[in-house]
Amino acid sequence: MVEQQLLARGIRDERVLKAMGRVPRELFVPEESRERAYDDAALPIGSGQTISQPAMVALICELLDFQGDERVLDVGTGSGYQAAVLAELAAEVHTIERRAELAEQARENLAAAGYADRVRVHVGDGTLGDPEHAPFGAIAVAAAAPEPPRSLYDQLEPGGRLVLPVGSRYDQLLELFVRTPEGPAVIRSVACRFVPLVGQEGFDAD
User: Fold this and answer.
1) I need a surface site. Which of 1, 86, 101, 177 has the fewest CB within 10 A?
2) Which of 117, 158, 166, 118 is nearest to 136 (CA)?
């Protein structure tokens, strides 16, 4: 996966490449899909949600430019895979999932992969972030919002980075925002496709 998918797509951060190589992705997909765990594609995990394409997870981590001492918020826990990768790169990881059944499955997946003590899973509206544990040096969002949720930006520490897909339900750009004294600075945009981020500051539920 690292050579054929990540390096081939321009991922160069050595820490990210090593983190992706350490996390057992097969433990974060349903048993019936495990033979496809390392496919270059997003895979369904139930409840209408997906586990993101490996290259997209790696890109999000690379854009966050970790130093290793950050407190991180992962929005849209899903299977828990992205949170596990983040735990390889940061000091403290909190992840929030709207659907309680997915959050519970993610806890089981994280425990099976050895991350139970390194990732704290919360249930709630991810568009509102996790004010109890803010501020965060980095926030990674694995679902698309019509615009950056203000609550998430406000929970960044000065100089903190927020990566999330922004756009419609079907056409989006993965954008990197940095908190500056002048307000949000958009550093980079990449075309992408994610499931919608549902919540008070995101999309309405279907």
Assistant:
1) 101
2) 158
What's the domain range around 107?
Answer: 2-192
Q: Is 198 domain-assigned?
A: no
d(CA 140, CA 165): 10
CA 141 – CA 165 distance, rounded (Å): 7
- 77 in Cβ contact with 131 (< 8 Å): no
Q: Is residue 159 part of a domain?
A: yes
Phi, psi angle pair for 79, to nearest 5°? -80, -15
pTM of this structure: 0.94
Q: What is the mean pLDDT of residues 75-86?
A: 97
- pLDDT tens, position by position, 96-148: 999 999 999 999 999 999 999 999 999 999 999 999 999 999 999 999 999 99
- Tally the domains of the chain: 1
Q: What is the pLDDT of residues 166-175, one digit of tens each?
A: 999 989 999 9
151 is an active site residue: no
Is 143 part of any domain?
A: yes
Q: Of 47, 52, 79, 151, which one is the catalytic site residue?
A: 52
